[in-house]
Inverse folding.
């Protein structure tokens, strides 16, 4: 029987690398439990695993290096994850359960603005600090909440660097088509991008909102084609972006100069699914795995990326990096507060000021960090950083038409 | 020109919708089971074709028959050894069991295949022709033609073969069919298998124009349901026509009413049809 359960355990560990504990905490150390409800199954599971794996990677690394010291005593982190099945109502219940029944000490976030918007209200209600990288919409931070902190940059500004770049490219972009989904994140992207385009003198010739749950772009693409914009910007999640690019190719819709997506381009499986159709596509990321970003536990972002890819079998993207920053925020804040008192830890988080693999972490008064998006482009199957507030590398521009990508 | 392009897009997508609904309508018409796991079958068919294409390098259209065969076997076994146990009980039970199947198949798919996005992306996936200023995406056209071919094939099987006559006889009058020597248990399993095979073909084609994840099933089940009701359950071409109508309505609604209203329009239409022509929505056979 014991052999059987060991075999079952081995199968489970092999199937879910995220639940393996290579650096098991020593029995003597005390524990700080971080709880989160994530989309481990359901339509959002593909993206939410970045948070599951990112949280686990950070916690195991910190524990493996001796944990943290709070008020002179040694502590290890423990992670309590629940599966909300990509259902917001269930997520809200589960955060309540994490606080009231499972008695976790602090909260990490779910994936996506839609989930965070509702589920963070539970953290605020019970005054339990939540640090999350899954919700970027400013709506989350505009409610005067005190206990919610975010490591994703504001959705309104996702296209900030892209629009700025458009005005400096030769030929300059004059007209753009903006297509955004109808969820909280993309609504914020739309509002922000329209304002940015207006400031930069770029004319928005198509501005359409499409449904998140059943994205079929053929009609919108026909409309876009009829307006011949210089650039096409798509705000949406990976599923939608994937359909969009494939349908644009099938209907031979080429922007005059460039096409850019809010999400997708930094994710390895997105690029793999598109193959050479991803070539020359612009995207954005607040993070690249650079050796410049130093980190107390991982050394630097490049070392982190290698370590992570070895363990989880895929390249980390910025979601993973922000999940690590979420855990590290608690590590630094708990040490600074010298106690597990939620009020003191909350104040320490608000004063965070540290370097990590993700970015320099400093929260604004509303709880969200503000870091720039780096414009990236797929060139020969690789992600090349193109622009922050100046050009980093030469863009492939104007992007070649569909038939000429290889 | 914009209008013509939108109509063309809707027409091509609608053909694929029709094929998707074909299997559901067949099972519904003959077994009186509203198969809520139909979308999951479409998803599994998509994975079959994906793995044959990505793993073994088989051309996705050539992989369709293999996927259909695999799905036929799965459908046959599921009906024979699971659904057949409750075939004579209240319809609520069949709804519950197919709903349960949907959940199980979806989560097994995530365990087995992960939630990664998969696309069936052959080199000709983005090929298109320009005809009279309209862009004609060839893969969608091929999917449309395949849908029509399969609907015709189903029609021929139903009208012209012994099996088809047995299926129609069972749908019309079970007792009489039994008296003429039809074995309903076997016939039901074959019919369910055919439904699953059609779903499998639709899944392969869907993966070529869209994407395959474990979670595409639910929306496709809902869409197939609407189309099956609109098209009626007795004629395969009625179903394909229903699919085309929905495809065109969605395409037009996306531009002239707003893309976020497409679902509201197609389900709203369903309500109108149920109110206006209630007999059509029932099993007329």
């Amino acid at each position: 029987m014991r052999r059987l359960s060991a075999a079952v355990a081995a199968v489970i560990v092999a199937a879910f690398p995220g639940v393996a504990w290579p650096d098991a905490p020593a029995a003597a150390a005390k524990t700080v439990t971080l709880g989160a409800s994530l989309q481990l199954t359901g339509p959002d599971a593909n993206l939410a695993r970045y948070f599951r794996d990112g949280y686990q990677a950070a916690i195991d690394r910190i524990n493996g290096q001796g944990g943290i010291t709070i008020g002179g005593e040694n502590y290890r982190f423990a992670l309590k994850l629940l599966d909300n099945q990509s259902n917001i109502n269930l997520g809200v219940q589960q955060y309540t359960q994490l606080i009231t029944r499972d008695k976790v000490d602090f909260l990490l976030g779910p994936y996506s603005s839609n989930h965070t918007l509702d589920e963070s209200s539970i953290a605020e209600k019970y005054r339990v600090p939540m640090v999350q990288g899954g919700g970027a919409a400013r709506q989350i931070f505009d409610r005067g909440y005190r206990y919610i902190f975010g490591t994703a940059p504001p959705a309104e500004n996702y296209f900030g660097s892209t629009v700025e770049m458009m005005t400096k490219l030769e030929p300059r972009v004059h007209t753009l088509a903006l297509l955004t989904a109808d969820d909280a994140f993309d609504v914020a992207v739309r509002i922000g991008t329209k304002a940015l385009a207006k400031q930069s003198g770029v004319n928005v010739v198509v501005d359409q909102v499409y449904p998140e749950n059943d994205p079929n772009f053929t009609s919108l693409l026909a409309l876009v084609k009829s307006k011949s914009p210089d650039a096409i910007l798509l705000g949406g999640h990976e599923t939608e972006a994937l359909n969009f690019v494939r349908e644009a190719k099938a209907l031979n819709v080429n922007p005059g100069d460039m096409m850019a997506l809010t999400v997708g381009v930094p994710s390895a499986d997105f690029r793999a699914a598109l193959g050479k159709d991803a070539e020359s596509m612009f995207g954005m990321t607040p993070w690249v795995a650079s050796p410049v970003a130093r980190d107390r536990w991982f050394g630097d972002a490049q070392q982190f990326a290698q370590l992570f890819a070895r363990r989880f079998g895929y390249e980390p993207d910025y979601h993973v990096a922000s999940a690590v920053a979420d855990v590290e925020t608690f590590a630094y804040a708990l040490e600074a507060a010298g106690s597990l008192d939620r009020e003191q830890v909350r104040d320490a988080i608000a004063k965070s000021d540290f370097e990590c693999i993700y970015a320099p972490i400093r929260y604004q008064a509303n709880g969200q960090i503000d870091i720039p998006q780096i414009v990236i482009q797929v060139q020969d199957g690789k992600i090349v950083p193109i622009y922050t507030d100046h050009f980093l590398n030469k863009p492939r521009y104007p992007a070649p038409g569909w038939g000429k990508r290889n | 020109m914009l209008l013509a392009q939108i109509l063309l897009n809707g027409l091509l997508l609608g053909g694929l919708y029709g094929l998707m609904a074909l299997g559901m309508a067949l099972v519904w018409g003959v077994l009186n089971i509203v198969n809520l796991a139909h979308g999951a079958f479409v998803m599994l068919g998509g994975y079959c074709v994906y793995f044959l294409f990505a793993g073994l390098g088989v051309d996705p259209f050539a992989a369709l028959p293999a996927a259909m065969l695999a799905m036929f076997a799965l459908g046959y076994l599921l009906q024979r050894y699971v659904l057949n146990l409750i075939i004579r009980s209240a319809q609520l039970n069949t709804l519950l069991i197919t709903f349960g199947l949907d959940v199980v198949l979806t989560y097994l798919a995530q365990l087995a295949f992960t939630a990664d996005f998969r696309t069936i992306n052959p080199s000709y996936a983005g090929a298109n022709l320009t005809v009279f200023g309209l862009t004609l995406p060839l893969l969608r056209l091929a999917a449309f033609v395949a849908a029509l071919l399969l609907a015709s094939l189903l029609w021929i099987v139903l009208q012209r073969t012994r099996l088809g006559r047995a299926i129609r006889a069972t749908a019309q009058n079970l007792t009489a069919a039994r008296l003429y020597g039809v074995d309903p248990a076997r016939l039901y399993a074959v019919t369910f298998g055919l439904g699953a095979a059609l779903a499998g073909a639709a899944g392969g084609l869907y993966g070529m124009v869209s994407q395959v994840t474990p979670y595409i099933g639910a929306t496709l089940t809902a869409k197939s349901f609407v189309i099956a009701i609109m098209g009626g359950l007795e004629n395969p071409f009625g179903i394909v026509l229903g699919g085309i109508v929905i495809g065109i309505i969605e395409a037009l609604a996306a531009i002239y009413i707003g893309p976020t209203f497409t679902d509201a329009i197609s389900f709203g239409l369903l309500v109108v049809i149920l109110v206006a022509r209630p007999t059509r929505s029932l099993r007329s056979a």
Q: What stands out?
A: The first strand of chain B starts at residue 128 and ends at 131. The longest helix of chain B spans residues 2-31. Chain B touches chain A at residues 1-2, 5-6, 9-10, 13, 107, 110-111, 114-119, 121, 125-128, 130, 135, 137, 139-140, 209-211, 213, 215, 219, 250-252, 254-255, 258-260, 262-263 (CB under 8 Å). The beta strands of chain B are 128-131, 134-137.
